[in-house]
Amino acid sequence: MLKLTLKPGDHIDIGEEVKVVFSGGSANNIHLLVDAPREMNIARSSAGGRRKSPYYAEKGISGEAQKEIVSILRRERMAGKAKDRTAGCRENISDSPRA
Question: pTM of the prediction?
């Protein structure tokens, strides 16, 4: 992609038949004049629909994958709780006075 800095009245040539003239601008708008043969189709990107951007949001994970993740997290949480309970029981046993 080519990026140009133009002043009002400057132009660029595209091939031998197309000339694009920068005629000025204001705020968020620029004004271009396009001189091209009638046979050439020229349209703004919003006029013919939006072009697909090369940048896109990633697709979400499937419902099946989400369920698998939830099941793994539950198993790990339950294993952690069971481990905490057995550790607590050991502390109580070691703290109790021996006769």
Answer: 0.43
